[in-house]
Structure formats: C-alpha cells, structure tokens
Amino acid sequence: MKGTRHSPGIGTNCEPAVAQILLPKKDDCVVTYLIAQDYTEQFAQTRNEEAVRDMRRVLTERGCHHYEIPIIMNLMPETAEEAIKLSPSLKDPARFPDDSLDQMLEEIIHYRQFQ
C-alpha cells in the first residue's frame, strides 16, 4: 500500500520524523501500542496467563494504583526500597504500613517462581 504526501502508507521511505508529523493521532497510538506490546512480549518475565491474573488480583486487592501494577509486574522489584525507587507513590504508609509492601512483593515473586 503506497501513501501520498499527506498520508504515508506502509512501505514508504519516509523519514520517521516526517511520518510522525503526517500520521493521524490514531495511527500514532496504534504504533505506540504495537511497540509496547512487542517490548512486553520480548521481556515478559511471566508468561502464564493464570499467574498474571493472580498477580494483578493481589496487587489490586493490596491497594496498588492502576499505574503501579504494570511497574511491579514488568520490573519485578524484590524489595520495598527498590519498588519505591521505581514508583515513589508506593511510599504511602496509609496504603502500605510497616512491612506490608515487602510481603506483597514476596507474594508476587512467588507467582513468578511457580508459574
């Protein structure tokens, strides 16, 4: 499929910067999604769908925000200190008193090890 000057198609030889300017916003979202999906598939530490569902359930039940869940699931911090460095919002004593963050991470690591 060839594109025109105003709508580049797949297979054109446009420079990426030019293609980004010419592509509609919807196409940018699709491209970004495909890149993120490829990255996730390449580096995913957990491939078992049931384990992923269980991990997500645990994180949701323990009070993680929607943006903290992928950080924890993809980067798999092993300690509360490491998790807080990756997502400073986890340093909230009202949500994670004492060592509850460490306990949550240990449970998540358990799912990864026994998938």
From TrEMBL:
Cell location: Nucleus
Alphabetic keyword roster: Nucleus
Domain RNA polymerase Rpb4/RPC9 core: 1-115
Family: Belongs to the eukaryotic RPB4 RNA polymerase subunit family.
Keyword Ubl conjugation part of the UniProt annotation: no
Keyword set includes Nucleus: yes
Organism taxonomic ancestry: Eukaryota, Viridiplantae, Chlorophyta, core chlorophytes, Chlorophyceae
Protein name stated in the entry: RNA polymerase Rpb4/RPC9 core domain-containing protein
Main location, first listed in the record: nucleus
InterPro entries attached to this UniProt entry: HRDC-like_sf, RNA_pol_Rpb4/RPC9_core, Rpb4-like, Rpb4/RPC9, Rpb4/RPC9_sf
